[in-house]
């Protein structure tokens, strides 16, 4: 990894860490797993950063890597994640704790989201992040029409889960 990329990467990661926290919250159920997944996603982003060409926005690229990392790790039903140690402190990267109180009103939704499959979770996540269907399709590697159809089906499923 080129040393000149480190400050740029750390700044981008620091400015966009909330999107990683949201992915972690969606795919984990406890704080330890959340922190492990956060670290693993950060490492995957770091490893892939030299290949980031800027064709898409950094956030779209980061969402794709974060979601793919979370899905691949949790599809295996792995409860603990083997991670590579990286010392972000030498880069003056500050980990901001995920504030559970701010997300209190979303607990019912998160509980319902746990009932969805991994791809449905990713689609809902991007939708809630106000991504348009073209961005969702690009991030998930599906067509825009497919994203719309899936989202309509998920909305119906969530309504049934939240209002049985």
From TrEMBL:
GO biological process, alphabetically ordered: DNA-templated transcription initiation
Keyword annotations of the record: Sigma factor, Transcription, Transcription regulation
InterPro entries in the cross-refs: RNA_pol_sigma-70-like (IPR039425), RNA_pol_sigma-70_dom (IPR014284), RNA_pol_sigma70_r2 (IPR007627), RNA_pol_sigma70_r4_t2 (IPR013249), RNA_pol_sigma_r2 (IPR013325), RNA_pol_sigma_r3/r4-like (IPR013324), WH-like_DNA-bd_sf (IPR036388)
Domain RNA polymerase sigma-70 region: 13-79
GO molecular function: DNA binding; sigma factor activity
A Pfam family this chain is assigned to: Sigma70_r4_2
All residue ranges annotated as the RNA polymerase sigma factor 70 region 4 type domain in the record: 108-158
Highest rank taxon of the organism: Bacteria
PANTHER family (UniProt xref): RNA POLYMERASE ECF-TYPE SIGMA FACTO, RNA POLYMERASE ECF-TYPE SIGMA FACTOR
Family label: Belongs to the sigma-70 factor family. ECF subfamily.
Name the UniProt record assigns to this protein: Sigma-70 family RNA polymerase sigma factor
Naturally occurring in which organism (per UniProt): Myroides albus
Lineage: Bacteria, Pseudomonadati, Bacteroidota, Flavobacteriia, Flavobacteriales
């Amino acid at each position: 990894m080129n040393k000149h990329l480190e400050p740029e990467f750390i700044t981008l990661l620091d400015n966009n860490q909330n999107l990683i926290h949201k992915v972690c919250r969606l795919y984990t159920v406890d704080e330890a797993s959340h922190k492990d997944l956060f670290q693993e996603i950060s490492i995957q982003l770091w490893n892939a950063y030299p290949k980031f060409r800027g064709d898409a926005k950094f956030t779209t690229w980061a969402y794709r890597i974060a979601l793919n990392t979370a899905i691949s790790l949790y599809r295996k039903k792995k409860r603990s994640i083997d991670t590579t140690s990286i010392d972000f402190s030498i880069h003056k990267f500050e980990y901001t704790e995920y504030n559970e109180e701010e997300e209190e009103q979303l607990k019912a939704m998160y509980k319902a989201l746990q009932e969805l499959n991994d791809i449905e979770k990713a689609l809902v996540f991007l939708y809630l992040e106000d991504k348009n269907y073209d961005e969702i399709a690009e991030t998930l590697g599906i067509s825009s029409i497919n994203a719309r159809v899936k989202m309509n089906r998920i909305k119906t499923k969530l309504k049934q889960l939240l209002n049985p």
